[in-house]
Write a structure and sequence with these properties.
about 100 residues, about 35% helix
């Protein structure tokens, strides 16, 4: 059976989406997104001790780390916390 349905992926402000994968759907972080999003931003994830949302791939995770390193609006402590958290979070193929 061929699945000819259109699949729409909505990416939340924090960069999280539920994506069609294999025979079902998986929730994953597909972009760095808005760091301060109270629903699913990385800062809220860290501060609230939530289980980290796996990254879609190693490439997406690495791009997020590079973006955090380049951002001028982050203080050193926040930048270090984010980089440590991102590096420790698995990407989807590992999850």
């Amino acid at each position: 059976m061929t699945d000819s349905a259109v699949h729409v992926t909505i990416v939340n402000a924090g960069g999280v989406a539920t994506v069609k994968f294999a025979d079902g759907y998986e929730t994953m972080r597909v972009a760095l997104g808005y760091l301060e999003s109270s629903a699913d931003g990385l800062i809220a994830e860290i501060d609230e001790g939530r289980e980290p949302v796996p990254w879609q791939s190693a490439q997406v995770r690495d791009e997020a780390m590079e973006a955090v390193e380049r951002r001028q609006d982050l203080d050193g402590k926040t930048r270090a916390r984010l980089l440590e958290w991102i590096a420790a979070t698995p990407y989807f193929e590992d999850a």
